[in-house]
Structures are given as structure tokens and as C-alpha cells.
């Protein structure tokens, strides 16, 4: 009898520390499914960032490196440059990537570092208990924006669209945004991850998949409510799809060749 | 034998390359050497200076506090350089550009018209090599008898064409020093 | 065959020694007075098929080192004082993850942006850990270009051997000065022992999964890890203390100095001896581990005094006091702000102390 669906080989079979309804678990599963499909378990290295996913080494059944907060792309650079034929995954949250590590991600992307960044955007700081993230929406509540994010009077800045920000950099080849709030989006996100990993193994340049993800605990919502909230609030601001694709496999843009 | 030299001049006069070439030749003649350049905080038009030591023994401090020989390439470096000369030491003046003698009655002062000699040979930029010849002559610390061979290993092959002119400048410097001693 | 003698700047000799030691990855950010080192690595690493990146910051450079070191290769970064301050977080992580790496500090004058001329004001930062947490790095202090090359080469060996980052603490004078140098023979990189804890090549090495991390959120296990590391440090202290002595046997006054200050103090000792003064020089080569025991033994001699000569307001003097432990007078002399004392000033300070 053929097994059609099971637990990914690269994903350790233990109960995770993630809260009910959290998107990290789904994202971990997507990453490991793709790794298994590509047969890369013994050639994969993940950098697990400071944030809720700091325990990634418990969950991923392959090598890992845990760098300083925000320095994940720098460490991933040091790893990938020395292990060119390995799959290097730079797993980052919105605080790690878009706040404390802004310099590192911009320059790694600009150098065209050949690892793949999985950018988990849940618009809040999870591990430290619900503080405002660079991607927190205008008006969204956080412990450090108790009356809602206010870019005006309070000078809290605007939510950063990371894919769009990086898209102007010469070193970036594939920037896509997915979400894990429903099966359709999850399937599309998996395809993006596969595209990015394949491009990395071909050595094409910087690839990143931004994934909109739920954080019911810090959004103060139930898991079903958080799925709905992501759909109604995040997706309109952070549009899903390929923001940039200049990979060798990319479909010719409409009108090309005319 | 230990010869401590302090060299000063304005930026662009080849003070640094004079010091480097001096220690390079000394090293090739089997001596122990140290060369420490110092630029004024003002990077352009500032006074370039170098502490240079060649010795038969291990060199302790690479900083020349009191120099056996002071080389002054320009008028504006007189004030900085004159106090570096040890009691009864030697001061080599580039008399083409230095018009007032340092206030050091205890020192032996030798006037070498480096720029004039260099221009006669064909290029004012080798005034520093004229001075290196004079420094060799007066100190005897670095002989420079086989400078042509040594300079071949100092310069990249593309610059070997310049070596004969440099050798001429060194020899002329030695002669100029002899005639004023 | 006699070895080739070359005239090199300290910064370049450090770079060449690192390359010969099998440094596979170099990451740096420009800062005076160590720029020749970064430029040397740029010019020589890439043609040799090795990795060179001019990072966007010192912070990034040290974390690239972290990643590279995690893969088991020999990795290095260099900077000067303010840049080394920026690297401290990364150095703490390297120590927490027990990763070998080489960091070179061509020190300049501080605090803050300070100046670009040589200084020794980074002694506390270098020997007390510099970053957060319970850790040490091995600190090697060369006195000139030859030793800068030798110690840089050895730094890679020591770092791999002990799994502790090694800091080569030079200063702007050693970086900028030219001296003759005989370089060590290059190592065969392919023959370097594999590191079983490194990430990558899991299938080739037929091993389980490796995790490189400094994280330990359970206080009991973190305490255990720190105690284990401390015991390891104790072993390094026993094995590695290194120093040089010059005319200390009969000395009434022992100058304690490292690096450039030691070179100047050598001249002061020579001049003092010529005047009939019984002074000597004790030069620590390893600043961590610091040769406390040897200084303590030297302090046994009746009437002996110690003068710590540093291009700082007095930092190593605290270690000399710890070593002497009240058995002899200890004082500090030094210039700061990028001013370098000369031998006359050092000798005058020694004479003042002798006559006090």
C-alpha cells in the first residue's frame, strides 16, 4: 500500500512549544516537506533566530546554527559561502529581520547571498510578549503601542513591506509572499518555498519567502479569529504572490518579445 | 652598530619611500631594521615623518626619541625635526628647500642641495634618493654599494627602467656629502 | 634552505600569516589603523579561492565569522578599537558556542571615536571578556612585526586546540610599522583535522545532527556548561601562560609592559643599566591567561618594586597588583590619547619610583 501522506522525515516528531493556532508549526512542516521531496535532509542547515522559533533545533532533524538576534543573515552568509552545495535556510521573524537585523538582511540580499530566507511575519513580537514589530499594522495594539500603532503623533513609524523594500536590490532574484491561514494559501506558500530552495540549489542568488502567520496569543484572539484577522487585515496591506522573480525558471513577463 | 634616523619633509617629497628604501637596503645588507611612519593629522600638505632604525642588534624601541642623524627635506619641517637630533648628532639638510639652519650649534650640519642635484640628473622627484646617498655616506650604516641589485627586488619589473637614474642620484648624494664634510 | 626575509608592515604580515595558517574565511570592515590588513586579505584571499567579504559593519563581520566557524573552517576578522567594541556581542556568542575564531585588534586611542594613533586602552576589554557573560578569550600581545606574524599564525592553532576565540591585541604602531619578518610555512588546509561538532557534510561524516548554539534557557544546565568551560579555562591557564624576561634577576625595579610599551621599555632598561640602575623588564605575551604566578614569584625578592608601563591610564597595573598581592609597591606610568612614551620618559618614571 502506498503511503500518500505522513510525518516529514526531516521534522522531529515531538510536541512543539508553539501556542495553539501559531503559524510556525505549519511553516516548519512546509519546509521539511520540501526538504524531504528534494532529498536534502543531510545537506540542510537552518539558522534559528532569536524569537519564538529559537527552539527550531528541537524540531528540525538536520544541522542548525543559532546566531545573535538580527545577525542571522550574516551568520548564514558565513555558512553558505563555506558550504556552497548545502541548502542553507535563514529563518527569521519580523523583529529579527526587519528591526534589529535590518542592515544584515539588506546587505545579504544585496550581495545576492545564495541562501533562502524564510521570513515569518506575524506583525508582533511573540516571544517577548506582544510588543510592536516593524510590521505591526497602523492602529494595531501591542504592549508597546497600547493605544494602537500611531505613526503620527506618537512617531511609531509605518509597517514595513520587506519584499517590496528588498525588490530594488540587484542581488535579489526571488521574493514572494505567502500566508498560512488557510489550506489554499498554505499550498501556494509551499510552492514558493520549493521554488526558492530549487533556485538556491542552482546557485541563482538571494531568495526569500515572506510568510504571513498567525499569533493568536499576542493578538489576543482565538485561533479561528486570528485566521480571520490575518485575512481581513494583513493580506490587504501585505499582498500575496511573487513580488519579484528574475529566476532562470521564471515565466516571461507578459508582453515580452513583442 | 645602531643608527637611528629621523626623517621629515612635506607630503609628496618621498619621505616615506626614502625611509622604506633605506631599511630595505639595510635588511638586504644583513641588518635588523624598523621603520615607523607618522603622518600629521592633516593628511594633505602635512609634514610626513618617519622613525627609522638599522642595527646589528635587536631593536628595542622603534620610536626614535633622539636621532643619531636627522634628515630635513623641507623648510616647514625644521622646527619638528631639529629637536629630534641627539646631542652632537648630525643633521642633513636639503639645502635646495631649507634656507635657515636649525638652531642646533652642537650638531654637525651638512647641506645637500637634493632638488638641484636631482633635477640635473633629470627628475626632481628623485631628490629623496640623493638624500639617501648622503645619509649612507655620512653614517656608513648602510653601504648601498650594490643598490642596483637591491632595487631590482624592491621595485616591480615594470619600474626597473627607473633604477639607473636612482643609482645616479644615490651616487651623486654620496659625492655631495663627501665634498661638504 | 634559509628562509626568505621580507620587509613588511605589521598589518600585512598579520594578513599573510593568517593566510599561511589556513584562514579560509576573512570578514572585515574598514577602520584606521588596520586598513592595510583588510586590503591585504582582499588582494590575496580571493585569488587563492578563499572567502573575503567586506561586511556592512563590524557587527556583521563577526557574525559572518560565527557562521563560517560553525562550518569548521578557520575564520578571522580584524578591526581597531571602536570596531572591536562593536564585535563584542559576537565574541560572546562565539565563546558561548565554543567556536574557534581569530580576532585581530590593531588598537587605537579612545574612548569613543577617539583618535587613530596607537594606544593600549583596550586591555580591560580584551582580558575581561569584553562582552556579556562568564567567558574569556585567549589574548596574545605581539611586540613587533615578526611576533605579530608568529602569534597570528599560532592563534589559529590555539583557537582550534582549545575551542576558544583568540584575540591578537596589537596596536597602531605594530600595524603601521615595517620590520623584517620571516613568515611561517603555509599549512596544508586539506590536512587540517576535521571538527566533529561542525555543521555540514553530515552524510560524508556519517554522523548524527549537529547544533551550534550558545542558548541554554535552563539555569541548571547553563550553570553546568559554564562550570565545564571554567574548568577548561583553568587548564588553559596552566598550559598557556607565556612571557619574556629581560634582566629581572637582580632588578630592584621590574617594568611590566606588553606590545609597543614593552619595546620602549626595553630601550629604557638598556639606558638605565648603562647608568648603573638595576632595572629589568617583564613582558607578558599572553595577556589572558596572565602570568600571575611568575610575577608573584618575582615579588618575593626583598625591596623589589614594579612599574606597569602602558599606553593607557593604567589597566594592566591592576593585574600586576593582583599578582603581587601587596608584597611589593606597584605603580603605573603611561601616556594616553594616542601619545607614545619614549624611553627617556619611561626611564625617568622608573628612576622616580626607585628613588621614592
Automatic annotation (TrEMBL), chain A:
The keyword Oxidoreductase applies. Residues 60-211 form the Thiamine pyrophosphate enzyme TPP-binding domain. It is an enzyme of class 1 (oxidoreductase). Keywords: Oxidoreductase. Its EC number is 1.2.7.3. InterPro entries: 2-oxoacid:Fd_oxidoreductase, THDP-binding, TPP_enzyme_TPP-bd. Signal peptide: none annotated. PANTHER family: 2-OXOGLUTARATE OXIDOREDUCTASE SUBUNIT KORB-RELATED, SUBUNIT OF PYRUVATE:FLAVODOXIN OXIDOREDUCTASE. This is 2-oxoglutarate oxidoreductase subunit KorB. It comes from bioreactor metagenome.
From TrEMBL, chain B:
NCBIfam families: PorC_KorC (TIGR02175). Residues 11-174 form the Pyruvate/ketoisovalerate oxidoreductase catalytic domain. Keywords: Oxidoreductase. Transmembrane segments: none annotated. GO terms for molecular function: oxidoreductase activity, acting on the aldehyde or oxo group of donors, iron-sulfur protein as acceptor. InterPro entries: 2-oxoglutarate_synth_KorC, PorC_KorC, Pyrv/ketoisovalerate_OxRed_cat, Pyrv_flavodox_OxRed_cen. It holds the Pfam family POR. Gene3D superfamilies: Pyruvate-ferredoxin oxidoreductase, PFOR, domain III (3.40.920.10). This is Pyruvate/ketoisovalerate oxidoreductase catalytic domain-containing protein.
UniProtKB/TrEMBL annotation, chain C:
GO terms for molecular function: 2-oxoglutarate synthase activity. InterPro entries: 2-oxoacid_oxidoreductase (IPR052368), PFOR_II (IPR033412), Pyrv_Fd/Flavodoxin_OxRdtase_N (IPR002880), THDP-binding (IPR029061), Transketo_C/PFOR_II (IPR009014). It is an enzyme of class 1 (oxidoreductase). Its EC number is 1.2.7.3. Pfam families: PFOR_II, POR_N. Keywords: Oxidoreductase. Residues 251-345 form the Pyruvate:ferredoxin oxidoreductase core domain. Residues 16-214 form the Pyruvate flavodoxin/ferredoxin oxidoreductase pyrimidine binding domain. NCBIfam families: PRK07119.1 (NF005507). This is 2-oxoglutarate oxidoreductase subunit KorA.
Amino acid at each position: 500500500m502506498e503511503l500518500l501522506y505522513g510525518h516529514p522525515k526531516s521534522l522531529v516528531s515531538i510536541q512543539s512549544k508553539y501556542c495553539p493556532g501559531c503559524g510556525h508549526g505549519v511553516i516548519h512542516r512546509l519546509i521539511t516537506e520540501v526538504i524531504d521531496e528534494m532529498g536534502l535532509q543531510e545537506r540542510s542547515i537552518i539558522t534559528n533566530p532569536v524569537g519564538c522559533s529559537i527552539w527550531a533545533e528541537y524540531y528540525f532533524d538536520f544541522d542548525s546554527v543559532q546566531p545573535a538576534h538580527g545577525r542571522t543573515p550574516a551568520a548564514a552568509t558565513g555558512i553558505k559561502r563555506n558550504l556552497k552545495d548545502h541548502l542553507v535556510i535563514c529563518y527569521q521573524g519580523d523583529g529579527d529581520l526587519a528591526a534589529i537585523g535590518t542592515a544584515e538582511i539588506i546587505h545579504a540580499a544585496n550581495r545576492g547571498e545564495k541562501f533562502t530566507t524564510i521570513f515569518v511575519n506575524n506583525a508582533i513580537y511573540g516571544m517577548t510578549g506582544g510588543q510592536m514589530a516593524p510590521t505591526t499594522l497602523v492602529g494595531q495594539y501591542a504592549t508597546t503601542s497600547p493605544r494602537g500603532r500611531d505613526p503620527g503623533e506618537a512617531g511609531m513609524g509605518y509597517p514595513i513591506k520587506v519584499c517590496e523594500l528588498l525588490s530594488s536590490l540587484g542581488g535579489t532574484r526571488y521574493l514572494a509572499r505567502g500566508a498560512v491561514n488557510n489550506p489554499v494559501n498554505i499550498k501556494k506558500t509551499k510552492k514558493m518555498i520549493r521554488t526558492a530552495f530549487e533556485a538556491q540549489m542552482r546557485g541563482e542568488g538571494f531568495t526569500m519567502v515572506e510568510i504571513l502567520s498567525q499569533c493568536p496569543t499576542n493578538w489576543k484572539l482565538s485561533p479561528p479569529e486570528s485566521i480571520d484577522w490575518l485575512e481581513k487585515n494583513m493580506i490587504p496591506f501585505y499582498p500575496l504572490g511573487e513580488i519579484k522573480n528574475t529566476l532562470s525558471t521564471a515565466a516571461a513577463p507578459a508582453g515580452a518579445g513583442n | 652598530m645602531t643608527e637611528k634616523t629621523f626623517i621629515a619633509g612635506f607630503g609628496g617629497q618621498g619621505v616615506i619611500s626614502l625611509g622604506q628604501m633605506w631599511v630595505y637596503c639595510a635588511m638586504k645588507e644583513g641588518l635588523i631594521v624598523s621603520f615607523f611612519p607618522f603622518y600629521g593629522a592633516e593628511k594633505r600638505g602635512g609634514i610626513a615623518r618617519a622613525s627609522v632604525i638599522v642595527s646589528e642588534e635587536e631593536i628595542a624601541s622603534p620610536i626614535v626619541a633622539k636621532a643619531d642623524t636627522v634628515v630635513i627635506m623641507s623648510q616647514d619641517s625644521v622646527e619638528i625635526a631639529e629637536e629630534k637630533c641627539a646631542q652632537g648628532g648630525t643633521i642633513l639638510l636639503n639645502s635646495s628647500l631649507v634656507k635657515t639652519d636649525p638652531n642646533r650649534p652642537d650638531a654637525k650640519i651638512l647641506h645637500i642641495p637634493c632638488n638641484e642635484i636631482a633635477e640635473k640628473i633629470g627628475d626632481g622627484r628623485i631628490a629623496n634618493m640623493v638624500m639617501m646617498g648622503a645619509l649612507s655616506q655620512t653614517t656608513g650604516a648602510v653601504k648601498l654599494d650594490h643598490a642596483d641589485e637591491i632595487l631590482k627586488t624592491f621595485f616591480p619589473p615594470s619600474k626597473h627602467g627607473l633604477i639607473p637614474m636612482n643609482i645616479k642620484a644615490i651616487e651623486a648624494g654620496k659625492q655631495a656629502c663627501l665634498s661638504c664634510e | 634552505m634559509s628562509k626568505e626575509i621580507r620587509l613588511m608592515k605589521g598589518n600585512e604580515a598579520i594578513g599573510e600569516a593568517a593566510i599561511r595558517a589556513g584562514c579560509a574565511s576573512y570578514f572585515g570592515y574598514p577602520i584606521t589603523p588596520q586598513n592595510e590588513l583588510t586590503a591585504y586579505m582582499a588582494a590575496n584571499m580571493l585569488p587563492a579561492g578563499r572567502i573575503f567579504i567586506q561586511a556592512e559593519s563590524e557587527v556583521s563581520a563577526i557574525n559572518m565569522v560565527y557562521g563560517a566557524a560553525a562550518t569548521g573552517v578557520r575564520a578571522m576578522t580584524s578591526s581597531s578599537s571602536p570596531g572591536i567594541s562593536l564585535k563584542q556581542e559576537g565574541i560572546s556568542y562565539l565563546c558561548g558556542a565554543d567556536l574557534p575564531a581569530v580576532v585581530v585588534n590593531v588598537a587605537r586611542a579612545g574612548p569613543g571615536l577617539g583618535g587613530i594613533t596607537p594606544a593600549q586602552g583596550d586591555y580591560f576589554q580584551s582580558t575581561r571578556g569584553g562582552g556579556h557573560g562568564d567567558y574569556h578569550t585567549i589574548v596574545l600581545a605581539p611586540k613587533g612585526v615578526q611576533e605579530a606574524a608568529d602569534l597570528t599564525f599560532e592563534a589559529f592553532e590555539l583557537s582550534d586546540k582549545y575551542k576558544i576565540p583568540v584575540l591578537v591585541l596589537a596596536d597602531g604602531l605594530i600595524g603601521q610599522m615595517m620590520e623584517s619578518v620571516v613568515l611561517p610555512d603555509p599549512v596544508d588546509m586539506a590536512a587540517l583535522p576535521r571538527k566533529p561538532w561542525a555543521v555540514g557534510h553530515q552524510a560524508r561524516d556519517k554522523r548524527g545532527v549537529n547544533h551550534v548554539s550558545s542558548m541554554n534557557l535552563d539555569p541548571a544546565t547553563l550553570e553546568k556548561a559554564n562550570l565545564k568551560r571554567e574548568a577548561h579555562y583553568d587548564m588553559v591557564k596552566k598550559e598557556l601562560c607565556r612571557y619574556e624576561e629581560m634582566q629581572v634577576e637582580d632588578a630592584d625595579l621590574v617594568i611590566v609592559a606588553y606590545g609597543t610599551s614593552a619595546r620602549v621599555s626595553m630601550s629604557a632598561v638598556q639606558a638605565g643599566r648603562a647608568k648603573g640602575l638595576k632595572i629589568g623588564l617583564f613582558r607578558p605575551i599572553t595577556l589572558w591567561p596572565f602570568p600571575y604566578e611568575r610575577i608573584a614569584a618575582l615579588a618575593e625578592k626583598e625591596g623589589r618594586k614594579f612599574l606597569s608601563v602602558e599606553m593607557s591610564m593604567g589597566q594592566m597595573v591592576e593585574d600586576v597588583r593582583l599578582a603581587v598581592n601587596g608584597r611589593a609597591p606597584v605603580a603605573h606610568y603611561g601616556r594616553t590619547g594616542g601619545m607614545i612614551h619614549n624611553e627617556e620618559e619611561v626611564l625617568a618614571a622608573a628612576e622616580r619610583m626607585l628613588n621614592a
